[in-house]
Structures are given as C-alpha cells and as structure tokens.
Design a protein that fits this description.
Length: about 375
Amino acid sequence: MSVLNVDFDFAIKLSSKGAFDPNGFIRVINKIMTHHKGPIFRFVLYIPYEINLDSFQEVDQWILILSRNSVKQFILVNSNQVYPLHSSVFSCMELKYLGIYNCIFKPPIGFEGFPNLQSCNLMNIHFGDNLGGTVINLPQLKMLALDTCGNVKSFNIKALNLRTLRVISCLDAMSLPLLHSERLDVVQIRLLKSKVDFPRVERFNLAVMLSKLPMVVSFTIDGYFLKFLAAEKFPKWLPHEAKCLKKLEFQSFNFGDLDQLEGALYMLQNSPDLKGLHVTHEQMGPDADLELTSNHLESHDCLQTLFMLQTVELTSLEGSRPELLFIKLLLDHSPRLENMIIRPKATTDTEKRYNIAKDVMLFPRASSKAKMVFLDPQP
C-alpha cells in the first residue's frame, strides 16, 4: 500500500472502539508503520486533541520511517499541542506536496530546500529563526498558502516559479522577496478581524503592496484588509499601474464602509486591463454609513472608464442604495461589458429581489452588448 490515510475519519473510528486510552492511538499507528512494507507515496496523519502526548517522540519516529520511504505527499493535521516538526521531514527530498497544521517549522542548519516541492499549504505555523540567513530553495514551487502563521519573515525562500500565493492573516508575508517572482500571477489575501496586528497593519498601504506585484494577473482581497490598507489613505496614482491584472475579486466587502469603497474604486482606477470583477457582499452592521458611501459614489470622477471590463459578478446583494449606485457606476463606465451577473443574498425575499432587478434594468449602459443575468440566491 503506497497510500496511508491516518486521517480524521480514521481517528473517529478509533475513538468509537475505545482506542483513545493513554496508549491506544499510539499503539495502533505504531503497528501500521512498523509492519508496512514498500514505499509510502502519500501519508496523511491527523493527531486528535484527545490524545495525551507527553512528548512527540512517537510522531518523530513515524516521520523518520516516512522519510525513508520515498514520500511524495505529506499532510500533518495536528489538533494537539504545538508540534516542533522533526528534522527528518527536511530530508524528504522527493516531496511534491506538503501540508502541515499547528507546528513549529525550523529547518536544520545546512538545509537547502525541497528540490521537487510543487505545492505547500502551511496553517498555524510558527517559523523558527532562520539561522545564518540561509535561503530555502524551492525551484519547482508553484502554489504557496500561508494561513495564520507567525514569524513569516524568517521563512526566507527562493521560489522563482511561484504562480499562486494565498495569504490569510500573515501581514509580514507581504515583505517576502517571493512577491517579486516574475511568474507570480494569482494572489489571494484575507485578514481575519480577530487576529490583526494593528501597529504592523498601519505600515502598509495599497500602493506599496501593488508595486510589489507588477505581474499579478488575478488578485483577491477581502474588505477588512482593504480597510486597513486605507490607514495611510490612498494616493491618487500608483508608481506602476497594475497593467497585467485581468481578474479582481473583493470578498466580504461592505458597501457601507467608506474606506473599503475607496480602496475598491482605487484598485479599479489603476487596473486598465481588467476583464473580470467579482464582489461578494458582507452583511452590513450597525456602523454602516449608507448615506456617506452613497454620496461618494455619486460624486464626480470617482471612477474612470474601464475599457476592458467584460464580466461583473455581484454576490449576496441586499439591494441597498450604495450597492445599486455601484452597479449603475459600472454599467456607465464599462463600454465593453458583456455580462452583469447579480445574485441576491439568501435571506432576501421575493419582492426585494424583484425590486433589485427592476431598478438595475432601468440603468443606462455604456455597452450595447451588456446582458443582465439574475441568479437565484445562494443557500
């Protein structure tokens, strides 16, 4: 068997059989690993929080066995105490996929990198200090995801073939040199509201971030991150326009927040070759100022002509005034628009959905080919 899934479902079965006694879980995995013959190309290990681990010696031993069996895909989901990743992981030179959760990632001195790693997903990882400034070489890496990781600045990597970068609540990842990769064309950034390092956020602005991504083709950012990037207020121009940007997505976007709205319009103004726009609206809270954002959308010159925009998709709309004004603005400034796709929020009643459609259909359109597509609410 070249694939071993000691995953969540496996742990549930062990639990139902009473194997979560002090030695049950460890004994079962020990038997699996010590009796296995032949290579292990894919290994998935889930460590439940119910297991009492005085140390991770057994886990270290399993990974040591794994490192000697030509592993190509390794996934470790640790729901127990934080695990200092064993050094034998860094001898798995055939790895193509690495996914780890809740660990300390500290390569041994002299570690040069994973020559075959193509995809890497790191969640709740703390990076140890990079002794001597050693660069981790990942020549085949195409996708990197960093989710709520600490001390990312010590993750000093060289990944010239990186194509996709996903970042959740790791603001210091924005300073990594990999952002200058000439092949990086998909960037997704989210900021969890409960995990914001306020002093560090205020050192960023959108102009600086986009200047680091001159070749990005697809860019996703959530509204909360947009708001904090507005801390230094947006300049009226970028040192370098995002000329390669073709697809832009705003997630958890609040049309009642002026900072978010200004940030979105600022990015649209500086994306001359944009072809696709997707906005997912977030339910507006009590601090939403609909009058303020509506007045801004009705002001002169808040948006220039989007000559290349062809498709717009707006999801979870509530039918508020600023939402409708935003649609009107896009229709009026998009001479090549082909499809305007609107999907109301699931809780929107039938009459409200009808009113949204009726209002939007009356808006003038700069494009004679623009089609209005109204979809059923998402569940």
